[in-house]
Structure formats: structure tokens, C-alpha cells
Amino acid sequence: MTEIKHHGFLFDATRCIDCRACMVACSVENNIPMDKTRIWVAGIGLKGEFPNLDHASMVYHCLHCNAPDCLSACPVGAYTKRPDGPVLYDPNKCIGCRYCMNACPFGVPHFDWDKGLIDGAFIDKCTLCPQRIDIGLEPACVATCPTDALVYGEWTDLVKEAHGRIQAHPVRYIDHVYGETENGGTSYLILSHVPFEELGLPTIGPVPVKAVSEKVMEFTIPFALGWGAVLTAVAAGVHIYNRNKESDVKQAETPEGKTEETK
Amino acid sequence: MPKTELSRRDFLKMGAAAASAFAVGSMIPAQVAQAARDAGLLDSAGDGYIASMCEMCVWRCGLLAKVVDGRVVKLEGNPDNPHSKGNLCPRGQSGLMNTYDPDRVLTPLIRVGKRGEGLFRKASWEEALDLIASKMQGIKDTYGAEAMVFSTTHCLSQPLFENLMYAFGSPNYGTQRSLCFNAMIVANQITFGMEEPDRDYQNVKYILLTGRNLMEAISTSETHDLSYAIDNDVKVVYIDPRFTKTAAKASEWLPIRPGTDLAFHLAMINVIISEKLYNSSFVNQYTVGFEQVALAVTGYTPEWAATLTGVEADVIRRIAREFAAAGKYALAHNGWRTSNFVNSFATERAITILNTLVGNWGTTILPSSGEETGTLGQPPQPPYPRISAQRLDGVPWKYPVVPLKIGVFQEMRDNIVTGNPYQAHGWFISRQNPIMSIPDRAKTLEAFSKMDFIATVDILLNDTAWFSDVVLPEASYLERYDPLLIIGNKVFVRQPVIEPQGEGKSSLWIYKQLGERLGLGDYFQYTDEEDYLRQELTPLGVSLEEVKVKGYADLPETAHVGEGSEPTFNTPSGKIELYSDTLNKVGFPGVPAWEEPPKPAEGQFYLLTGKVAQSTQFGTQNNQLLHKYSDEPRLWMNAKVAAEKGLADGDWVVVTSDAGLVNVHLQATEAIRPDCVYLTPGYGHLSKGLTTAFGIGASDSVLHVTYTDPISGGQALSQTFVSVRKA
After folding, report:
1. CATH code, B605-726
2. Which among A27, A34, A146 is the nearest to B220, CB-wise?
3. pLDDT tens digits, residue range B505-561?
4. Is A242's Cβ below 8 Å from some Cβ in B?
5. What is the per-residue pLDDT across B68-102, written as a single tens digit (0 to 9) for each?
6. Min Cα–Cα distance to chain A from B7, Å
7. Residue contact B669–A37, C-beta within 8 A
8. ipTM over 0.85
9. Domain ranges of chain B
10. Which residues pair with B705 in a beta bridge?
């Protein structure tokens, strides 16, 4: 059996011109409805005061984590991580609980409020174009990028390429390849000349949230059940108290002739 | 039998639904699919890739159209095309949405309401073509052929459009050029004897961009090349009153005062000559007029320029020295849409001189190699009739150095309104939107009102079609053949990848049909589009089938002019003309001289215009995919100025110029000089037939005041001053 190589894409913010060809290409390739998108421009855009200005843009979409939190949070196994990179979502399994949205540290999965149980596909996000990479094409966003701000390739090669660019231009780049270690590593790697938070990326450690969340999840159900019982008891108590109080009020008002409420 | 009745009715219902919803599509005999199947491009199911050429702007990138079941589902850049290098910009990516625009005109239309009411009835091609031909012939018989005005935009079928016009006998030709790049091409013509030399980024070490916003006004391959140059630490100095996305990538951004680019360049020339930093052997061997230039620029010191431009003298001096130090590896980009001020022509001339002084000819500036059509064949035809009538646009009687095929569109419009030197009565327009593009829209509408007859060819009811009497539906660029294009040593084809929506037809077909009805059939000696292309290919020894497979074919090796030989220049002296006797003879300065353009009055602003990556001129705003990913076109104003005026981001404002007023949302931003405002062009459409674009943004053409440069005929688009108040 041939070894499946981990692939990914490398984004270089110094090369991105915010032209949005990637967004259009993605929309057409994946037949995205006109009011939805899988790629968006993130970050603070323009900063500074005239004439000392800077501008940075970021092609933001699913980072395709090596240890995806969406996958571990999903109670019905709608997510899979392919060994060659893509994190995929199966609309037929999804029950629309939106745990993945809360779990994703990058805020990627988006909930489609227009769809219900019957239509399926509550969640939408970048797929890394498996229909293209499986036949040897680059993902749609990469293929069209006029400035090669996006490139696709083997993950280890891309990491090497990214560090090579930093070494060649130490002043230009921040000395860090975002996604190499973040959240346990992601298939989407990012180089930048501005702090990563200015591109809209969270500051996040190397330990995947998944590792933490799975620990927490062990307690979730007993905790939820226990806390639920407490809440139910409290709610019942409050209801009884209010009902008693209401009848007290009515009784108190009646002697003064304010009888409207009891009529 | 009831069952048969039902299924027959269902079938009819289905047919009607399919025809309207899918606009014919796969319902008609699939000629394209069959041809593509025969060529092995589509499989038996009708799926595959067909190579063709983009037309979302004029750059002509190569594309590969993915076709599934008779529909285009995706466009890719063709890696073999030097204009796209495998990439497409957002406009190129969205191209299929132009074809599948629900607002497409699907049949010929004949106006039934008042002009501008948008009331049309469907007509057959026969009726519409007969009507146009009879109206055109009637105008010719009554007033002379010159009473018919023709206008179109840079496109591959333009030679056939010109063929119809010259065969008809009219001298009145409107192109978009005077609203765009007359200053640049006339300057290149005067200095180098060619309209636009190529730029080469392979060996470049220093780039001066005068307002050339390549990261937003995308020319795919050139944007790509600039991006790699920046990546390779090439210094890029960018001059623009706005902080554009190109400014963000440049090494140095100089927010110059509008209208003073000329002073900046004259001061650079002053430094390079006075400090003897120029390439004297190149200047001696290949140029004329160095002494005149040296004499003329003595007073144009960096200190002088600093007071005008707002750029410090030391900075100008440093940039001049850096530019000269890069020698033949330096490149001063001549820009593209250079219609800015009445001194833009002199600015462009100064840029040609800067390049020449460092001797970059043959290194970063090459003889124009692209788009040679001379080697293509063409059908036989008789000579054109002699035209004795004066042109309405003042070429050459008012504009002696503007080439005839370029013209001065805004002047033509003005003379249609005044009726001088004679009254025009009809206007035939193809793939162009003069109501949106010519400055002072109210005046253009007035010119339309002078017309007895207007016919427009387009894929949409654009604003001009909306005010026309007959509209002919063109097939989109994915649905038709156009004449071939030679780039370098390859010949490229634009070929249909799907059947036309509705009854759309190619320009090659439409012009021939009109020509035949006007008794001009001898000028259109081809049976159909493929026959025309075959006749073009005859002298090249390449078959159409070969070209269709990959979208291009290699041409037999031939020596290109200027390649490996001494450079030649098609100027009167045969050399690069730093001083131009041609200009001198017609009463213009032979070397560029400072001319102070007007300034805005107190409380007014320069109105700037300039492209965004998601639209091309006036024709793409209705594309739903581009609309989806475009920013709202708001009026940019410096954030501090806005605050002083009590205006907040997002406020409705009224913008007023001498020509008109518009209401638009305000964008308070740091990315613009305090004395300027900026409006994205191409919005504020009048046509309600553009259901996506109608109601979005405001038209800069409503505000633009007409000022024409007397030398190049270019419209000074940035020489409009506006006041802004809260709505």
C-alpha cells in the first residue's frame, strides 16, 4: 500500500492583494448559494493614520486541523479527517446541534439557518476541494490566485518552504509559521508580515483544544444530568412560590373594590 | 386516451418551462457539443474542458471552460496562455455568471414606449435587422453617411465593426480610448513610434508606478509579474493620492497632490541630467532632442517640484538617483488609464523620457510584440468608399496628432449636441455603454435625444440599450467565435464552449447580416464564423481544428521585428524623439513643459476615480458573483476631514459638481489625501434592466465635467471638483 502523504495549503499574507478571485472560484466550484461563502476576508484591513498606513488581508477559511475539534465535538460522527489533509463534513449525519461551531477555535463552521432537518446540511465550510485534489487538480482557490499568495503541496514541503521564505526575508516576515503547531498543527499554513491576530487569527497553543475538550466531555453528561435536576427543582419551587404570591395579591386587592382581575 | 393527453400536455409544459428557465441551452441541436465531441474535448456524456479566451476585461487571458451537460460550470486559467499563466482574476472567475445572468437579452427587442421607459417588444432577427438597415440607409440617403455615428470598445471583433463603418462611409467613430489612455498612447507614439511598448519584469530592479494600481486594476500576468518582483525585493515607488492595495505592497508610497505628477517627473529628469546620471551612449546613439530637453528642465529643480507636489525635494532627488542607479534595469511604468488632467499628455511624455535616459529599451521596455494581426489573413474585399466629410470629434481638424482610429469621444458627443459642423441623426453602438462612460451624463442623454435612430448590440439591457430603439442580443464570449488573436508566436482562439442563450448571435454574424442588408455584402465575404477564421489562418498554414484543441497553435518560427537586431523606431527621425518636431509643427511644445492644472476652490475636493479588482468599467456590475464579493461603492473621504465636516462613516451625502449631483454613502477612511474624494466608477446605473446593479452606488459620469487635453484628446477625469454635504 502506498503511503498517503499529508497535503495542505500555504497562504502568504505579503502576497495577498485582496482581489477575492479565490472567493469567486470557491463559490463557483462548490456551487455555493449567492448569500453564502466559504472564504471571507478577515483581519483589521487598513491600519494607521494618513499617510502612515498599512493594509493586510487574509484568505480565511477552514484550517483543516490535524486534530479537529469539530470532529471530536460532533456527537454523531459527521466529521472526518482524511490523512491527506481535508476535514470533511457529512450533511446526512448532521443533526444541527452546532457543537462543532462552539468547539472550533477558529470560528469556521457556519450554521445555515435556512435549512431544517429535512434539507440537511446545516453546516457549511471549506472542504479543501476533494473533488479536485483527488484527480490531481489544485483546490479552486489556489489554482486561480493571480499572485500565488496561495500554494498547495505536501505539508512537510510547505513547512520547509515557509521557513525558507522567513530565512530569506527575516525583516519582512514574522518569524512564525501559523498552523505548524497551532492546535496540534493544521493543514492550512500561514505566513504574515503583521501580527497574526491582525489577520483575525486567534492566539492558540500547540495543544489541541480537542485534548482538553475530550477530558471535559467525560464529565459532561453526569454534570448536565445533575445540574439539570437541580435546575428543575429550583424552577418548580419558584413556580409554586409565585402561584402562592399571586393568590395573596388577589386576595389583598379584592377588599378595596379592585375586582377586575377576578372577573 | 386521457393518459396520452396528459403526457402531451406535460411535455409541452416542460418544453416551455425549460425554454424560459434554461434559456434554450440543451434544447436546441447541440452543434458546439457535437464539434467538441468530434475534437475529443467532451466525452460521450458531453462533459469536458474547452479552451477559449476570457473577455471580462481587455487583457484576454486564456481559459479552460469546464462543461457539464451543455452548461459551463467552472472556468480555469489556461496555463499555456502568457496573459493568464494559468490564473484568472475575480472577474475572469465570475465570467460564467455574465452568460447565465437572468437579465440576459434573449431575443432582438424593438422599443414600444418612450426612450428610457424600458418598454420593448420581442422581434425576430429578420425584422430587427431589416429595421436597422432601413433606418441606416434612410439616414445615409437623406443626410449623408456621416450622419450615422458608430461606436464600440476595444474587442476582437472591432476590425469587423470598423469594416461595416468604413464600408458604410461614415468617418464618425467613437471608441473608449479618449476616456482612458489617449495621453499614454499618443505620448508613446510621439516618442517611440508605437502605441504601447511591452514591459518586462524579468530583470527589473526598480519600478516607478505613476498611479498604475496593478493590484486592483488587474492585468493578470502583469499583476503576477509585479507581485514576484516585489517578492524579489525590487524597489517599487508608487505615486497616488490614494492608499490603494498597490500602495500597500509598494516599498514607498507618495501621496502626491493630484495634477502634479508632471512636476515630479520633470524634477527627476532635471536631477538625472544635471548630475549626469543618464546613459549617454544610449542617448547619443538612439535619440534626438536631448539638448532641448536638458535646456527645458533647468528650472524644474526638486525644490521647485516640492512646493507643487507636496513631496519633499530630498525625496524626489533620492528617487531620481536611485532610478538612474538602476540604469537599464529601472522601469517607469507609463500607466494605463491616464486620463487625469490636461497635463497628463506631458506627464506621459516625461515618463517616456525618463525611461530613455536610463537606456532601458530592450531590457525592461520592449518593442510591442503582442497582438500583431498583420500576419493573419482576411477575406477579399473592395476598397472603402472615399470619405470627405469632417469628423465630428475634431480629429484631425481640431486635434491634429490624435490618430484617426482613436478619436476624441467626448468631443463627438458635444458636437452631436451642438450640431456642429453638421447634425448627426443615427447611432450604431456595439458592446459599449457611452451613457455611463462619457463625462457629463446629462449631456450624453441630450445627445441621444438628438438622434432619429439608435441601435445597440449587447448581451444585457445596459444603460445605452435601455435608451435605444432596437437592441440586438449578442452571444456572450463563452457562446461565440471572435476573430483570432496572435500573441508572440502563438495564435489564440475565442470559441463557443456552449450554445448561445436564447437567440444570441456573434458580432461576426450580426455585422455581416447588416452589411448584406445595406448592399455591402462584398465587404463580408465569409459564409460563417468558422469560414472567417479559416481565411484568417490560411497564410499561417495552421488549421482551425488544430487551434481549437488547445485554444491556440504554435506558429512557424519567424523573426520578429526588432528581435536580435538594432532597435528601430517608427518616428519621423527613426529615433526615440525626446524633442518632437511633429508636436512643434502643430503649435505644441516639442518637449514637456510644466502646465498648472486648475485646483479645487476652498471647501471643494478633487474627485478621483480608479478601478477595483471586482469590476471592469461599466459592464460587470450586474454580474451576481462579482456583486456578491464587491465592497459597496461609497464616496471615500479622509476620515479627519469628514469628522471636521460633521460627517460619519455610512452617512448619506450629496456630492455636487458643475455637471451634476449624486447621493451616495460616505466612507470615512485614512486612505486618501484630505483634499480628495474618490468614487468607484461604473455604478449608479440608469437601466432597470440591470436588476442586480440598479440602485447600487452613484455614477461618477454624472459629476464629471468635460475637459479635453488639446494635444492627446484625452478627457481629464480628475479635473472635476466637488463639494460634499450631508444628505
Report:
1. 2.40.40.20
2. A146
3. 999 999 999 999 999 999 999 999 999 999 999 999 999 999 999 999 998 766 454
4. no
5. 988 999 999 999 888 888 999 999 999 999 999 99
6. 30
7. no
8. yes
9. 130-180+390-485+501-549, 183-363, 605-726
10. none
